[in-house]
Write a structure and sequence with these properties.
Strands 1, 2, 5, 6, 7, 8 and 15 form a seven-stranded mixed beta sheet that branches. It contains 15 helices and 18 strands. The protein has three domains: about 280 residues, FAD/NAD(P)-binding domain (3-Layer(bba) Sandwich); about 110 residues, Succinate dehydrogenase/fumarate reductase flavoprotein, catalytic domain (Flavocytochrome C3, Chain A, domain 1), CATH 3.90.700.10; about 70 residues, Methane Monooxygenase Hydroxylase, Chain G, domain 1. Helix 14 packs antiparallel against helix 15. It is of the alpha/beta class and about 500 residues long. The chain is globular. Bound molecules: flavin-adenine dinucleotide. The site of flavin-adenine dinucleotide has 41 residues, from helix 1, helix 2, helix 5, strand 6 and helix 6.
């Protein structure tokens, strides 16, 4: 067992956690946690890129804002959206100085690409593995910072605030370690694992949201969930491989079970380039028409050289699954992809609990409205984690030495967790809310989710990573279904 004190706890080593650490005053002692290996996170999976107004001759802040508002159903927080768009280019340039390599044109300028919902080419990308390029470059930088201690494979199991300080319980190599910090930043990512099928990595269990909720922080719009229309459809894996939006951006067609284009029926102007929520809903409508859930994405008309050069990773992955995308359409279907809601934060990432910040996918800045525009998420993770760091820097005063924690450490012993909880929660969520909410199913299952939640909260289970993930998924499902049922009642559909 180990005890220690730090100035700042950062939970998460995705883009938001890493970038927050990089921008924090080096005078502060930072502890950064990653519950699995450093690169196992949604950030490292990002393919398409980062959206920002880099080409001011052909693009403008107002256009980026307009596209984001259209995609978000005009439900976006306009103040935070303006911050995102106007500050974004600064952070994309900062990435360049952190060693991130974006694809370039022959004249050396950044080769900006197009994605669904964008009216201009504004996506900076590294082939089709932008997230991995950014994460690995930032990890290299953060590892050089003497004030940052990175604890890999270290799972936050408990977080509470007492007498103005945060107390955390962290499991590392099977042992509990206890830390106190003045400030805590939750950068714990999304909630995809609450579904049967998701593009999200295994860490996306909503832990940060659960901790914030139980500390009394405001949680907002957790039912604003994005279902990406083009995940590779093999129906064999929980983690579905994403076929990036950029493939449609570069001209791919969506085809139904008869291998016929259908988007013009529902979206005559934008066709395949309509925002994600619209395309996913069109796919379900077409499924009703044809009676088949077989759908395809076809970019073979662009030629093998272009495809292999522009989408080398996707080409290879899909080839491993038995399809040559340079020659044939590939099977796709919508699946859970992103969370627009989360821990409510203000314009510099502060939650409603003093000293507690949230950044990236676990936070709700409101910039995305009800549907995130492609490639705005990495941008949000960058801009708002820097603003968090700047706010922490502003408030920094050297800390007095704190005595090691001697009391209130939760007992690690308890009953073992029964099996099957997570599977049950996932099935419930898949039935109750896939692309569009099913109000009747949500109402039917809410009481059962509440029952599981009560059992997990009060059952005296041993405090382990498995227990925390089950508790987080159940808490998240409970909040989402509660919102869905309330909406159904408001609409008079239940
Ligand atoms: C397949 C895919 C493709 C995408 N493509 C794009 C794209 O092209 N452009 C774009 O803008 N967005 C894209 N996104 C979305 C974007 O990648 C994510 O929203 C964003 O990277 C989230 O970053 P984050 O730092 O908030 O979380 P993550 O990168 O997911 O990091 C979360 C971190 O929290 C840690 N953590 C969680 N719980 C605990 C705990 N209890 N204890 C300790 N550590 C914990 C994890 O270990 C991890 O290090 C994509 C997402 C996916 C899944």
């Amino acid at each position: 067992m180990k005890y220690d004190n730090y100035d700042v706890l950062i939970v998460g080593s995705g883009v938001s956690g890493l970038y927050a650490a990089l921008n924090t005053d080096p005078a502060m002692k930072i502890l950064m946690l990653s519950k699995r290996e450093l690169t196992l996170c949604n950030s490292a999976l990002a393919q398409g890129g980062v959206a920002a107004v880099m080409d001011t001759d052909n693009d403008s802040f107002d256009l980026h804002i307009k596209d984001t508002l259209i995609a978000g159903g005009y439900k976006n927080d306009r103040g935070n959206l303006r911050i995102l768009v106007e500050q974004g280019p600064k952070d994309v340039k900062n990435l360049l100085s952190c060693g991130v390599e974006f694809d370039r044109k022959d004249d050396g300028s950044i080769d900006l690409t197009l994605e669904g919902g964008h009216s201009r080419r504004r996506i900076a990308h590294h082939k089709d593995s932008t997230g991995y390029e950014i994460v690995t470059s930032l990890i290299e930088r953060v590892k050089k910072l003497e004030n940052v201690t990175i604890l890999e494979n270290s799972h936050l199991l408990g977080l509470k605030k007492q007498d103005g300080r945060f107390y955390s319980d962290v499991m590392h190599e099977g042992t509990h370690h206890y830390y106190t910090t003045k400030t805590a930043v939750l950068a714990t990512g999304g909630i995809g694992r609450v579904y049967d099928y998701t593009t999200n990595s295994a860490i996306a269990t909503g832990d940060g949201i659960q901790f914030a909720y139980n500390m009394g922080a405001e949680i907002k719009h957790l039912s604003y969930i994005q279902f990406h229309p083009t995940a590779f459809a093999d129906k064999k894996n929980r983690e579905c491989f994403l076929v990036s939006e950029a493939v449609r951006g570069e001209g791919a067609y969506l085809l139904n079970c008869h291998k016929k284009r259908f988007m013009d029926k529902y979206e005559p102007e934008r066709k395949e380039l309509a925002p994600r929520d619209v395309v996913s809903k069109c796919i379900l409508k077409e499924q009703e028409e044809t009676g088949s859930d077989e759908f395809f994405l076809d970019i073979s008309h662009k030629g093998a050289d272009f495809i292999k050069n522009r989408f080398p990773m996707i080409y290879q992955k899909v080839l491993e699954k038995g399809y040559d995308m340079t020659k044939e359409p590939i099977p796709i279907y919508p699946c859970q992809h992103y969370l627009m809601g989360g821990i409510a934060v203000n314009g510099h990432g502060a939650t409603t609990v003093e000293g507690l910040y949230a950044a990236g996918e676990c936070a709700h800045t409101g910039v995305h409205g009800i549907n995130r525009l492609a490639s705005n998420s990495l941008l949000e993770a960058l801009v708002f984690s820097r603003l968090i760091a700047e706010d922490i820097n502003k408030k920094y005063t050297p800390d007095k030495e704190y005595a090691p924690i001697d009391a209130d450490c939760p007992s690690p012993s308890g009953k073992p967790l029964p099996s099957g909880i997570r599977t049950e929660i996932r099935h419930i969520m898949q039935k109750s809310y896939f692309v569009v909410p099913n109000y009747a199913e949500a109402e039917k299952h809410l009481a059962r989710v509440e029952e599981i939640k009560d059992m997990l909260y009060n059952g005296g289970y041993e405090l382990t990573p498995d227990y925390i993930e089950a508790k987080s998924l159940t808490t998240v499902a409970y909040i989402i279904l509660g919102e869905v049922v309330a909406e159904g009642k408001e609409k008079g559909e239940i």
